[in-house]
Design goal:
alpha/beta, elongated
Length: about 210
């Protein structure tokens, strides 16, 4: 399947936006909580904070009890608005493009008589793929997620073992994080012909890199 790469939000811009949003919501936030909000290590959060101060996006003011208050400057508010608009545009593009991609994936499945589909990986893409499946003749039988206890996604069973799903023809990847590790699990039990990896996923590995 020939799919154009997605224009995903640059991870540095995304982290900068998360930092600006966190400070806008709470001016006395600690650097440790700031790092938790951004989902990064304390040292990386501190690095982004210093960078934003240097750019004139944030001002720091000393407060009692050895605390610091952080304020967005007018330039910081402007940058937050710009990045928010950029992120929303990218999100809408992702939604449209990924919906088209999964529609084509399911059309290909029907053409090959692979009507029973198992999705692999819980993410925003899982919902998009499931919604597109309802517009096709495929039947989604569940969601495989290796590190997830038995649960449900919409009305679909979610389980950590392929053995818990019966009579599926192919597995379609819908993971946004740690796609390669999930693929490794699948390849131990299934043939390559049974695993469908939309090429758009190969352009989203930046999400996993954020934790490295």
């Amino acid at each position: 399947m020939n799919t154009q790469p997605l224009n995903v939000t640059d991870k540095e811009s995304q982290l900068t936006l998360e930092l600006l949003q966190a400070i806008d919501q709470k001016d006395d936030i600690s650097q440790r909580h700031l790092a938790q909000q951004m989902g990064v290590a304390l040292g990386l959060a501190n690095s982004y904070l210093k960078r934003c101060v240097k750019k004139g996006l944030i001002k720091i003011k000393a407060a009692p009890a050895n605390r610091y208050l952080y304020y967005l400057t007018p330039q910081g508010f402007s940058e937050k608005a710009r990045l928010t608009g950029e992120f929303l545009t990218t999100s809408l593009t992702l939604f449209r493009q990924s919906g088209d991609v999964y529609a084509q994936v399911f059309a290909d499945c029907i053409e090959r008589s692979n009507k029973r589909v198992l999705l692999a990986g819980l993410s925003d893409l899982t919902e998009i793929a499931f919604m597109r499946s309802l517009q096709s003749d495929v039947e989604v039988v569940g969601v495989f997620q290796a590190d997830q206890a038995n649960s449900q996604f919409f009305d679909l069973p979610v389980a950590p073992s392929l053995a818990q799903f019966e009579n599926f023809d192919v597995v379609v990847m819908t993971s946004l994080e740690e796609t390669n590790s999930l693929l490794a699990v699948l390849r131990k039990e299934l043939s390559e012909e049974q695993i469908i990896v939309p090429s758009l996923l190969l352009n989203m590995n930046y999400r996993a890199e954020l934790d490295n």
